[in-house]
Amino acid sequence: MARQPRLIVPEQPHHVIQRGNNRQVIFREEADYQRFLVWLKEGAKFYDVAIHSYVLMPNHLHLLATPSDATGLALMMQKVGRLYVPWFNHKYERSGGLFEGRFRTSLIDSDRYFMTCSRYIELNPVRAQLSVAPDDYPWSSYAHHAGIRTDTLVADHPLFWALGNTPFQREAAYIDMVRQGLSTEEVDFITIAILKNQPLGSLSFKTELEQKTQRQILPAKRGRPFNPPLPPLSAA
C-alpha cells in the first residue's frame, strides 16, 4: 500500500522531527552540530523555509518551520541529509543510512499551539536531563529568543513579535513563558501528534484543514455506514 503524502500546507508552521536510525547518535561532537546547522541554514534559505525554533539532540532533532510552498520543507530536509550523512560517514569511517526513514511532521494551529510547540522544542534538553535549564544547552534556538545571542538561522514568527513592542519586552515575556514550563498533558499532546504525523490543533482547525486539503484529518466514524431502507417491492 502506497504511503500517503505528508500533509504540508504553505505558510503554515510545522513541527518536524528527524531521528537517528535505531535511535543512534547523529551528533557526536561540537563540530557535527555546527556543520549540520550551517547546511540547515543554507537549505532553509535556498528553499524559502522559515525556521522559527529548533533543537539538535544527540540522536534526533526538532524544528518548528514554515515553508513557503508545498515542496520546500521536504526538499530542504533532503538537501541537508544528502550533505550531512556522507560527511558524517566519511568522518567516522562508517557507511549506510544515518536517519530513521522519513522525517515526521505535525501541522500546527498557530493561534493555539505555536508558542507551546516552540517551548516544547527548546525544553527538550531539560526533559532529557541534558541540561538544568534551556540556556545551558547550546544547540537550540532558546538563546536567540531569550536575547542571549543572535541566531541568524532563526526567523522570528509574528506571534513572537506580538509578545512585546521592544526586543527586551519580547525576550522577557518569552523567558517567563518558558519558566512556566509545560504540563504533562501538553507534552503528551504534542508528542503524540508528531509521532503520528497528525495536525496539532482544535477541532475547528482540523475540520478546516479537511475542507482545504480534501484529506481525511479527523478520525473516521466507527460502525457500519448507514444504508437507507429500500422501498418496498411492488406486487408482481
Automatic annotation (TrEMBL):
<dbReference type="Pfam" id="PF01797">
    <property type="entry name" value="Y1_Tnp"/>
</dbReference>
<dbReference type="InterPro" id="IPR002686">
    <property type="entry name" value="Transposase_17"/>
</dbReference>
<feature type="domain" description="Transposase IS200-like">
    <location>
        <begin position="9"/>
        <end position="124"/>
    </location>
</feature>
<feature type="region of interest" description="Disordered">
    <location>
        <begin position="214"/>
        <end position="236"/>
    </location>
</feature>
<dbReference type="GO" id="GO:0006313">
    <property type="term" value="P:DNA transposition"/>
</dbReference>
<protein>
    <submittedName>
        <fullName>Transposase</fullName>
    </submittedName>
</protein>
<dbReference type="GO" id="GO:0004803">
    <property type="term" value="F:transposase activity"/>
</dbReference>
<dbReference type="InterPro" id="IPR036515">
    <property type="entry name" value="Transposase_17_sf"/>
</dbReference>
<dbReference type="GO" id="GO:0003677">
    <property type="term" value="F:DNA binding"/>
</dbReference>
<feature type="compositionally biased region" description="Pro residues">
    <location>
        <begin position="226"/>
        <end position="236"/>
    </location>
</feature>
